[in-house]
Amino acid sequence: EAKKLGRNNYQWFDNSLDAEILKALKIRNALQSGIDNKQFELHYQPVFNLHNNELIGCEALVRWNHPSMGLVSPVDFISVAENTGQIVPLSRWILHRACKDFKKVKDLMASEAVISVNISAIHLLRTEFVTDISNALAAAGLEARYLQLEMTETVMVDHPELAIEKLTELKAMGVRIALDDFGTGYSSLSYLKSLPVDVVKVDRSFINELVNHRHDAAITEAIISMAHHLRLKVIAEGVETSAQRDYLRRCGCDAMQGFLLARPMSKITLTEFLESYKATIEQDDKELTPRI
Ligand code: C2E
Ligand code: MG
Ligand code: MG
Ligand code: MG
Which H, E and C letters describe the chain, residue by residue? Predict the structure, then answer.
């Protein structure tokens, strides 16, 4: 009986592994025609300033509308695209699209608002990376100070010298840098001081349990306090409840993003969202009532 069970387990494991590989292969083959046939789309999630209730930018999140597979999550295709190198042309397209779209909506947001674009380490480490950034900005006619690049700390840990060199060059151009998913990787708090970074984004996993778990609250508070000592801004990601928002506000967190304010949305929906937000905030100013 035990032997039978063991064998079944093995079989199950084997099949699921095959399924994983098949899925990755399918995605790899489909990615190229996806790039050629413009099956990608950017959605945008607004970022909200907790001190003054202004909208201070949005994050571009890529979506893949595959004709037969349907909507494929970036979680499923970004890593495949990284392994094949297809992330580089895809990332160039994302940068161009995001800068162009932002140029049209930026006047509906705070004057310091930025478009935040996720960058893969594979692209960052390419020799053409900095040129790709300036090309995207030039093509959109957007000043560098409106662009923020999000990257995870793994690239800083794996290739610290090259990463710091590139980021320093970008910062000199006026581009802003955010550390994404902060707290999930190695997160040596001390190394932050040597990085050319402007913003820290606290990972959603800590925000999730913020109100119920003392440890997550302690970590979040420590990140906020340390970041502020280093003169960095803090954005909390994945804020879903008003209790989480209130907690973050009390801790002095600078900004938030999450389903509580808005889900990622198409460019058209974003424009409508920003217009109606602007209208209500102007109304609220007259009535002196706080927003959200
Ligand atoms: P990320 O950069 O940390 O993006 C935040 C993710 O959290 C997004 O998932 C977003 O839809 C989701 N999210 C936002 N607010 C909430 C919330 O309140 N609750 C919950 N449960 N989720 C929330 P998405 O769009 O599926 O993207 C997943 C990841 O894929 C991103 O994580 C990023 O690492 C990667 N990614 C997305 N777009 C791009 C891109 O254009 N380029 C690259 N290189 N990576 C991307
Ligand atoms: Mg991000
Ligand atoms: Mg993030
Ligand atoms: Mg995340």
Answer: CHHHHHHHHHHHHHHHHHHHHHHHHHHHHHHHHHHHCCCEEEEEEEEEECCCCCEEEEEEEEEEEECCCEEECHHHHHHHHHHHCCHHHHHHHHHHHHHHHHHHHHHHCCCCCEEEEECCHHHHCCCCHHHHHHHHHHHHCCCHHHEEEEEECHHHHHCHHHHHHHHHHHHHHCCEEEEEEECCCCCCHHHHHHCCCCEEEECHHHHHCCCCCHHHHHHHHHHHHHHHHCCCEEEEECCCCHHHHHHHHHCCCCEEECCCCCCCECHHHHHHHHHHHHHHHHHHHHHCCCCC
Point out which residues pair with 64 in neighbouring strands: 40, 72
With a cut of 0.95, is the ipTM above it?
yes
Ligand 1 atom with minimal separation from the 42 CA: 41
Determine whether the shortest distance from the Cβ of 183 to ligand 1 is under 6 A: no
Do you know the residue count of the chain? 292
Point out the ligand nearest to the CA of residue 201. Answer: 3
Residue nearest to atom 35 of ligand 1 (CA): 74
pLDDT tens-digit readout, 5-60:
544 555 555 677 788 888 888 888 899 889 888 899 999 999 999 999 999 999 99
